Each structure stands twice: as structure tokens, then as C-alpha cells.
Amino acid sequence: MTEHAKIRQFVETNGRRFVDTLKEACSFPSISAEGLGLEQMSDWLEDRFKGMGATVSRLEVAGAPPALLGEFRGMASRSGSSGSGSGPPDSGRTLMIYDHYDVQPVDPIDLWHSPPFEPAERDGRIFARGVADNKGDLVARLCALETYREVFGELPFNVKFFVEGEEETGSLHFEQICRAHADRLQADHCVWEGWRIDHEGRPELVYGCKGLLYVELRCRMLTYDQHSSNACYIPSAAWHLLRAVASVKGADDKVAILGFYDDARGPQPEDAPLLERLPFDEAAELKRLGITAFADGLTGMELRKALIYNPTANIAGFVTGYTVPGAAKTVLPAEAMAKLDFRLVPDQDAGDIARKLRRHLDDNGFADVELETIGEENPSRSPTDSILGRAIESEAASWWPLEPAVWPLMPATGPMYPVARLLGIPICSPPGVTRPDSAIHAPNEQIRVDDFYDVIGYTAAYLSAYGEF
Ligand SMILES: [Zn+2]
Questions:
Q1: How far apart are the CA of 462 and the centre of ligand 1, in A?
Q2: What does the pLDDT read at residue 76?
Q3: % of the chain beyond a pLDDT of 70
Q4: Is 233 exposed, middle or buried (0-12, 13-18, 19+ CB in 10 A)?
Q5: pLDDT tens, 433-444?
Q6: What distance in Å separates the CA atoms of residue 414 and residue 382, rounded to the nearest whole number?
């Protein structure tokens, strides 16, 4: 019997019990935005870790829900080169597994077909808030660890589960937790949350993420709104802010902030073959969006490159004056407000870009426009040739029928930077239980039961490969 066959058999035999564990995890309303259920959820998780033989610590910093560190000590390596059953928990090679136990709010609750915290099974799927993002992956990994031990014996390396409780509110204390507990968080590699399986069932994995700078620009010029007949002599906050926002991009659609692109690293030589293999159905995407062409006429390889390596400047909102559709009110508004988000690529720094934006506004006649940073996360990418990456990629290729897609960098943002850069741990995010139709952050969040089984088995398989490299 092959390794995969042994794993599949164990998962099949224990599948219903694994599903029950997942449903139990999803019955806690651990909504970080509302400060709900986080204690109960972290207690439950702590009990699970302890029940499996882990040493558990709560990594505390003021104002944050506890991050849990569940440490499993590995036995001597199968190749005899690392790990020691009698040594301290951090001897030998150590694999960190990062997940989060908090979930998004459930609104709008009316659109749910079953209560979000009463996990329900329909049509081979499990519906619950958090089942895809990211309790499904977290529980699948616990089940995978059990599977590995039952099939192969003790792990030949240490495993540290690092599970935070405020990812869904922007991981505000995550960097602080990493700095304060850096000694405890040392590891050789890190499995990061879970990436996804695409529409066609193709596994996808990523090695990094873009960063984000989110700012609010405000301009107030008058004590209160004025009659618009006086626009001939009264200055307009709306026009002023509109020009300030317009100045951020040039006519060529490039960001015009001085020095914005200085630290933006383009594709690395090793990325080229990965980009060639990235699936991107342009026709389907155009249809989905209801457009006939992408921005700047992008297509083919240039489109893929832009998606991964281009930083962006996006207008997320612009509010001023009277906005009732179909009605008229002749008003000269006293103030205007805009929200902008910038997706950043390695090695841009969110704080540095915010300072450059301030200088840009000052130098272009907009010193009176207020700038407030609402959120910032730095981008990060890890090498695509790590031992962990090789284990994750090769096992994905043999576990699923379709060749895996490898993203050097995902277009979205996550809190990878403190782990990858501050702690210096190379990251890879393997295919997880999520599909594009999993409705993460939305009503009726769901995963397929078969994907859950696959991710458990596949995780046990790459843990085994990681131990052998
Ligand atoms: Zn999320």
C-alpha cells in the first residue's frame, strides 16, 4: 500500500468524527470585531491541543485576545538527522503552523439559510461562519497530525501551532505578539493559513502577499455648506480634494507619488516558469465583470505580471455634498472626504509610502488636505525553493489530478510580514479547504466535505514529505 493509500484509508475511516470536530469548532461565535466568544473558542482549542499531547501557552499582549502556541515535540528524525525525543520542545527542525480562530461578523443574518453557528450539512457541504476562513484548515491540520501519527508514528520534527484571535480585524497586535514572544516563536518554516482550490478543482499555493496602506483624506474649507450661487467667490473643498486625489495618478495611470516605485521589486528569475503555468481565464473574467477589456489593455503574461507585481492606488470611496440619486440640491459643500487604498509589493514599506504621500500632497498645493492612516500592513514574500515549499508543491501535484498553480505572491494582503521578515521564517501557504464559491466573509459560508477530507489527507502527506527532505 502506498503512503497516500494508507492516509486515505485512515481519513475515510475517521472522516465522520473529523467532521464532528469541525462542526464543534464552528459552533463558537468567535467574532473578533464584536469581541464575542473568543475566550470559549480559545479554551476549546487549548483543550484540543492538550488532549493531543501539546504544551500550550497563551501569548498575551495588552488589548489583544490571546494567541495560542500549541507545541508538539517530534521524535528523532526518520533520517536520524534532526529532532530528539528527549530534548526540549525546540530541538531539531521545527515547523510552525499559523491559523486564526476568530471569524467575521454574520451580517446580514437574514440571508443565511441556516444559523451561522449551528453548522449544517447540505448537498455534501458544511455551512457555518468560519468553516472556510479559517477553522476548516485549522481543524484539518489537527486531524492531519492525528492521521500522520496513527499511520506513520511520531513526527520526526517539532510542530508549533501559532493561532491568533484577531486576524479578521486586521491582526492589530500580531506584530507586537511576534516581537514580544520572538524566542518562543522560532521555527524553520511556516505553513500559513490556507490558500485554495480553484473552480476546476486545481490546488493553488502561495509564497507571499501584497501589503496594504489604507488612508483617509479630508478637506474642510467652510464653517457650513453654502448656496451654490456663491461658487464664484467661495472656495470649494470638493474641487480641491478631487484635484488632490487626481494628482495621485498620472495620465499614464501610473502612481505619481515621488519615489513610490523605488522599492518595488519585480518578478524574480525563478518566477518565470510559475507565471507561465498560472491559470487565468481572461474571457470568463471579462464576462464576470461585464467589460470588454482590462485596465490599460492588459492581457496574457503582462496581465499576470500586473496582478502579482504591480502596486496599486485605488479610490475606495469619495463623499461630498448632496448625493440623493435623481434629486437636486444646489449646494456648495463645506467638506469632502476620500478613502484610498494602496496594495504594496515587496520591498515597499507602508509607513514609508504614507510619508511619501504626505510629501506629495504638500509639494503639489494640498498641504491643507488632512491625511490619516486607517490601516497598514507590509508586503512579504518567501523563497519558492524552501524545503517546506518543495514538500507542499510535490505532494499537491500527486494528491490532486490537476497540476498545482503556484503564486509567488497573492494579490491580496495578510499579516505574513511579522513572521516572514521579523522572525525570518520562510512561509508557504498550501491549498486549503476554500474554493472561490466558499462565500468567505459572506452569508452561507461553506466548504465541501470532500475537500475537507482531501486537505486532511494531503496535509498528512506533506508533513511526511517535509520530514523526509
Ligand atoms: Zn477572513
A1: 24
A2: 61
A3: 97
A4: exposed
A5: 999 999 999 999
A6: 13
Q: Are strands 125-127 and 120-122 parallel, antiparallel or unpaired?
A: antiparallel
Q: Which three cell numbers stand for residue 273?
A: 516558469
Please check the confidence at residue 84 and state whether its pLDDT lies above 60. Answer: no
Amino acid identity, position 12: E
Say what angle helices 387-399 and 449-468 make with each other, to 10 degrees: 140
**C-alpha torsion sign, points 318, 323, 326, 331:** negative
Average pLDDT, the chain: 94
Can you give the pLDDT at residue 80?
A: 42
Compute the distance from residue 16 Cα to the ligand 1 centre, in Å: 26
Question: Cα(168) to centroid of ligand 1, in Å?
Answer: 5
Q: What angle, 0 to 180 degrees and rounded to 10, lies between the N-to-C axes of helices 38-51 and 3-25? A: 150
Mean predicted confidence (pLDDT) in 178-206: 96
**Centroid of ligand 1 to alpha carbon of 121 (angstroms):** 21
Dihedral, 400, 381, 191, 12 alpha carbons, nearest 10? -10
Question: CA nearest 171: which of 62, 46, 32?
Answer: 32
| Total Cβ atoms within 10 A of residue 124 | 9
- How remote is the CA of residue 32 from the centroid of ligand 1, in Å? 11
Q: How far apart are CA 275 and CA 179, in angstroms?
A: 34
Instruction: Give CA–CA dist 389/393, Å, rounded.
Output: 6
Q: What are 200-241's pLDDT values in tens digits?
A: 999 999 999 999 999 999 999 999 999 999 999 999 999 999
pLDDT tier for residue 86 given thresholds of 50, 70 and 90? very low
In this prediction the pTM is 0.88
> What is the 196 CA–ligand 1 centroid distance (Å)?
13
Spatial separation of the C-alpha atoms in residues 277 and 38, rounded to whole Å? 41
Note if the bond before 108 is cis, omega within 30 degrees.
Answer: yes
Rounded to the nearest whole angstrom, what is the distance from the C-alpha of residue 42 to the centroid of ligand 1? 17
87, three cell numbers? 530534548
What are the grid coordinates assigned to 362, written together?
504638500
Expressed in angstroms and rounded, the spacing between residue 242 Cα and the centre of ligand 1 is: 32
